[in-house]
Amino acid sequence: MRPTDDLQRRLRELLRQRSVAHGDFTLASGRRSSFYIDARRTTMSGEGLALIGALGLEHLTARGWAPALVGGLTLGADPAAAAQAQGRPLDAFTVRKQAKAHGTGQRIEGCFTAGAAVVVVEDVITTGQSAADAITAVEAAGGRVLGVLAVVDREEGGRAALEQAGHAVEVLVTATDLGLR
Fold it and tell me: Domains in the chain, start-ordered, CATH in brackets?
């Protein structure tokens, strides 16, 4: 067994323990679901940050992506982006849902610079809309998107939608991996 396999196994365990709830839920997309994945309960934990950082960097390297920056739509992407920035000189940014009405009025905050190669990070992909919104904002600001890195794919069409739009997607864990499908 490779050390990465142990990290992957532990991330699945942590997500099941901290982030998966069963019941009747309405998702951000408006869809109903018998399970909810609040990945922030994992991505905002010390152990989760370490696991996601190590596994995410492995996925970036395997894909051949060498981003200057990682980030995505706030709030879900923020801790996952910070995890990727650990352990190597990789800066992070966050994309607001709307530009601020005060201060500099920016929609993208943090270390973002026009022309930078970026990977958009997402905590959970359902429809792919949050990642697509972040991609649109990054490209409008002059960033070059290499692809999308997601902590969890609910396997409800979001990954396929992003890929059909021409964006490569890497996923750390799927709903199937978590025993939800």
Answer: 3-174 (3.40.50.2020)
